[in-house]
Each structure stands twice: as structure tokens, then as C-alpha cells.
Amino acid sequence: MDYQNAISAKAEERATARQHKLEKNTARERIAMLLDPDTFTEIGHFAGGNIAKGFGGAAVVTGIGRINDQPVAVYAQDFAVSGGTLGEAEGNKIINLMSKALELRIPIVSLLDSGGARIQDGVVALSQYGRIFKKTIEASGIIPQISVILGPCAGGAVYGPALTDFIVMTKDHAHMFVTGPDVVKATTGEDVSFDDLGGAKLHNFQSGVAHYLASDEEDALDYARTLLTYLPANNTAPIPEWDYVETEEDRACAQALSDLVPASSKQPYDMLEVIRHIVDYGEFVQVQELFSPSIIVGFAALDGQSVGIVANQPMADAGTLDVDASEKAGRFVQFCDAFRVPVITLVDVPGYRPGTAQEQAGIIRRGAKLIWSYANATTPLVTVVLRKAYGGAYIVMGSKSLGGDMNFAWPGAEIAVLGADGAVAITGRRALKEAAAKGEDVEALRKKLSEEYTRDNVNPFLSVERGELDGIIAPEDTRRILVESLRMLRTKKSLFDGERHHGNIPM
């Protein structure tokens, strides 16, 4: 045992020297930062090594520990051993850990920092990636899977984290790309840097591959811990709950809601402030904060119960829906449904973003994914229209027709097929044309028709009459109504018999 400990200590000493020189932590240091203190039990410590020759083991550390006193499976690639490359031994260790996590029904967190497939292992290394992908898909929707990219992740290896639920990347050291800069230059002639090709900022702001941009390793691991706080251990485990007592500050926040939202539907406001005035302690954990900012998704607690939140953001492109917003919100709703986390939808949407760019980008097929996610969901769905909801965008944002369990609107909400200006341009075309021909004041007529249309059609009353809304609520009652709705829906059961499972497919 002393000999084994000596080998381990020597290996960690070498790893520390190499990683700290790069301003990075070792695999075991990262695991210690992620988990509760002294809770890690390593599995297959010396697998792939040769103790007799003083070789400690494979380029990955695997085991089970605890986060917030809940069991979690974790593996960390060790860049200090063969550049963290994956060969037969590493693949076997990872797959064995994933199988154990599925057996125990506990989340998996992967800490990735690797040079890719080990060239010396040839096709064996490639086949190990395939086995990891297959096991990841088997686990999808059954146990939460979080990937934390702390260094390079290139080639076929990128599809491993892409198949998981959440990807966290560190700002300075994380990279993800299918083909590296050298290959790109050789094949296309394009001279591109690591950051421009697959850096953390690119994948957070532009591609949407990543879900959080971490300032450093500590921030990345802390975000992974925070996410797991809001998630059940598996798709049949209870939703996380905490003891909660409403405070005077909470009541004051609820009363102040109406002051946050301007009466004019054309004036922007920050939906994040609305969310913080509704949820417990004002705490909200955003997912994909930097990607497609016109839609907000993330986790919070409401009356001590974990919930997912989807909301339009009027501060970004007026909160319109486009291809990226649709896919971002759709996948989030699908994830929440897979793990039975209730979804609160806060609506203030003028419609879909118009234009040839959106049509050419596939708004029809990609926008349909948001519809599919809501319509397929069996988790509790509660929706509130704050200010406006027009046309198809009204339908897709958790409407009653798509399966919303409880749907409400604030008194001044504008719910219609079109806004007044757009509607009058169509329905009042003849009257406006005749007025112009007679030399009458066309703008005065346009304003009159717009006011009539707004009075008769742009309001929540027809929706209430037809049962598409369950009520019109005062802004200050929003939190209370949401809490009461979730309490009522606690016993909601799927119409499907037995355990229902679906994966959280990439979109």
C-alpha cells in the first residue's frame, strides 16, 4: 500500500508541475474543487497502469463523490498523462463509471482536458469514443449530465459533451472544434486562431454550443455545482425542495412588479428584474445567458421548489423569437420535462423576427422545435402573459392550446393575431384608400381604426371567454398565483402508463 501511495504521490507531483505551469489545476485538484470535502472515492485508480514499473495509471481519474451531500459520478481527464488522450484503458474507465452512474441513478459530471484520441491506439481509441457516445445517449433524460471543458476538446471528442445536457467552458483555456486550425488551413486555406475557431466566447455568444462562460476553473466548477442544486438525481427522483418562509422583502418585491413593466408595449424593460421580483430570494441561475439574449431560460426556486423559467427579454430585439431563441427555449423545456421540473413561462413577445434571413435559416423547422417541446411536455406548465403576445409567437410560448396547465394574463395584456398597425394595414386597406382618393386625413383615419381594433381585439378578454386563459391577475398577485398553481399541480400525472422517458436530444 505504501508503494502504491508513493506512486500516486509522485504522479500527482508531476501533474502539478505540468498543469500549474499552464495556470491550470490537476485532474484531482479539479475533482476536489467540485465535490464536497473528503467525499471522493476513486474507482479503478491504477487501471491501465503498471505498478511494478512505477506507472500510475490511465489519463483519466474516475470515481463517485458528493455535491451538497448528494452522490455524483465524476471523471476528470488528466492532461499531465499522455496529454489526457483517450485510449482503450481510458475509454473503459469512463464507460464503467457511466454504467455505474446509470445503475445508481446519479448525475455525471465530466471534466474534460484532452489532446483527443491516442494515435498509438488507432481504431481502438476511435471505437471507445463511439461507446462513450452510445452510453451518453442511453443516460440522456435518465440522469443529468454536465460537461465542463477546461482545456482542449477536439475532433470526434467534441460530440461527447455535445450529447450531454449542459456544457461549461472556461474563458481562457477551453476550446472545442471538430477540425483544428492546421487542418482548416491545409484544406481551405483559411488562417484562423484557436479562439476564433472554437474558443469559449465563440461557443457562448455565437454557436450556442456552450451554456456558461466561466471566468476560470473555480467559476466553472461552481456553476456545475449550482446547476445540480436545482436538478433531481434522476428522472424519477423528487424535485429539489428547500424550507422557505416568505419575507417582507419578498412581499415588497411582489408589490413592486407593476412598476417594473411600462404600460406602453413599445417601451423596453429588463425581464430579469421581473423574474428576480418573483422567485425566492431573487436568485436566478441563467442558462445560455450570452446566446440568443431575446429569450431567457434558467432555474430558480418558487416557494422552496425548483422550477425552470422561460421568458421573453424585451431589452433584446424586443423579445422576438428567431431560430436561435426557438431552439434555445425548446431544448430547455425538453430538459425540464425529462426530469419533471415545472416550467414557468413569462410572455411578452411581439412575434417572430421577420425577414429573408430567418426564412433561409429554417425558422419553420427550427421554430417547430419549441412547439414540439411544449406540446410534448407532461411536467407542470404555468404561463403568464405580462404585456403582449401576438400571432404564432403567442401559441408557441406555453399557450393553453399546446398543453399549458394554468394560463394567466395581466390586465393590460395585448393578445391578438396582429398588432393594431399591422391589422389596420390589412383590414382597413380599402377605407384608407378611399379616404386618400377623397383627399381626407388618412393618418387620422388610420389612428381611429387602430384605436377601434385595439379596443375590440387587442386584450385578454376573448381569451378568457374562450377558456384560453384561466384568469386575469393583478401584477402584484403573480407570485402568489404561481405558487398556488404549482401546489395544485404537484400531483399531475402523465396520461402515459408506467415510467415515461425521453432523451434530451441536441437541437
UniProtKB/TrEMBL annotation:
E.C. number: 6.-.-.-
Region: Disordered, residue numbers: 1-21
Assigned keywords, A-Z: Ligase
InterPro entries in the cross-refs: AccD/PCCB, AcCoA_carboxyl_beta, Acetyl_CoA_COase_Trfase_b_su, ClpP/crotonase-like_dom_sf, COA_CT_C, COA_CT_N
Pfam annotation, one family: Carboxyl_trans
Class in the EC hierarchy, top level: ligase
Molecular function per GO: ligase activity
Residues of the CoA carboxyltransferase N-terminal domain: 1-243
First and last residue of the signal peptide: none
SUPFAM superfamilies in the cross-refs: ClpP/crotonase
Stretches with biased composition (Basic and acidic residues): 10-21
PROSITE patterns: COA_CT_CTER, COA_CT_NTER
Domain CoA carboxyltransferase C-terminal, chain residue ranges per copy: 248-488
Protein name: Acyl-CoA carboxylase subunit beta
